[in-house]
């Protein structure tokens, strides 16, 4: 795919923007503005870019950009969208996994779009965009072409995904990523409290993930729940008696596994 250079303004200076901005520059695009309601945050990101101007004013009426990317929290986006001023017919895309394209419906002077990278981002954890799926949506054909070229300059996985499909993808991602990470945290806490190393689980976790993506995950389930090993289950529940929340999680997941067996 052809990879033309675009002028891009980023609204947001959080985890997504922190990784997306330098990746876009590396792909040949120009980040012209970085907005954050806290100027220091915008400046911190802009300092890592070639020539981006930092601002805490969401008035872009006198700016010129091919694409305005709103990389902010879902809860902050409606308020920012209401406050922001864009040049007529600007292409404005959000990066949310859950907010529908319809969030742009009241704003007839802009072309709304979705530019959603399906990945978890933390500021201090490097990511490679090459294999990150980008889910794109817009009703404007020319806008879709620009989005595809922009995403294609970053990743080999670019998809047209409508709002309903994206909502389902995000739900699945919550189970696969957020809930799984929380379970990792529980595992690490149990081990650390008992003077054992979390790193000992790494080969087990890697093998589990590998199997899950090479076969049906339910078909390769292992452990005491799938074996209906009640002695082990009760022993482990007893161990968790000082933490009722962890007990409930253990019981709920055990029942779910057994219902699928």
Automatic annotation (TrEMBL):
Pfam families: DUF2520 (PF10728), F420_oxidored (PF03807)
SUPFAM superfamilies, A to Z: 6-phosphogluconate dehydrogenase C-terminal domain-like, NAD(P)-binding Rossmann-fold domains
Domain DUF2520: 132-257
Domain Pyrroline-5-carboxylate reductase catalytic N-terminal: 7-84
InterPro entries xref list: 6-PGluconate_DH-like_C_sf, DUF2520, NAD(P)-bd_dom_sf, P5C_Rdtase_cat_N, TM1727-like_C_sf
Highest taxon listed in the record's lineage: Bacteria
PANTHER family: CONSERVED HYPOTHETICAL ALANINE AND LEUCINE RICH PROTEIN
UniProt name for this protein: DUF2520 domain-containing protein
The organism of origin for this protein: Adhaeribacter terrigena
């Amino acid at each position: 795919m052809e990879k033309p250079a675009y002028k891009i303004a980023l609204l947001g200076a959080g985890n997504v923007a922190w990784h997306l901005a330098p990746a876009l520059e590396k792909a040949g695009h120009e980040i012209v503005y970085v907005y954050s309601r806290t100027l220091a945050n915008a400046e911190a990101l802009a300092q890592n870019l070639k020539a981006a101007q930092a601002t805490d004013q969401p008035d872009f009426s006198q700016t010129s950009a091919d694409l305005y990317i709103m990389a902010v929290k879902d809860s902050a986006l409606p308020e920012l969208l209401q406050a922001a001023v864009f040049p007529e017919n600007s292409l404005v895309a959000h990066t949310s996994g859950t907010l529908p394209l319809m969030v742009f419906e009241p704003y007839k002077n802009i072309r709304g779009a979705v530019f959603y990278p399906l990945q978890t981002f933390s500021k201090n954890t490097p990511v490679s965009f090459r294999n990150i799926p980008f889910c794109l949506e817009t009703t404007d054909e020319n806008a879709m072409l620009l989005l595809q070229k922009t995403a294609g300059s970053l990743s080999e996985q670019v998809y047209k995904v409508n709002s309903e499909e994206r909502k389902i993808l995000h739900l699945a991602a919550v189970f696969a990523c957020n809930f799984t990470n929380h379970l990792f945290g529980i595992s690490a806490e149990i081990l650390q409290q008992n003077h054992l190393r979390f790193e000992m689980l790494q080969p087990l976790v890697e093998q589990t993930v590998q199997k899950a993506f090479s076969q049906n995950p339910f078909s390769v389930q292992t452990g005491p729940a799938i074996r209906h090993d009640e002695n082990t289950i009760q022993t482990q529940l007893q161990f968790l008696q000082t933490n009722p929340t962890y007990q409930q999680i253990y019981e709920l997941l055990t029942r779910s596994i057994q219902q699928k067996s």
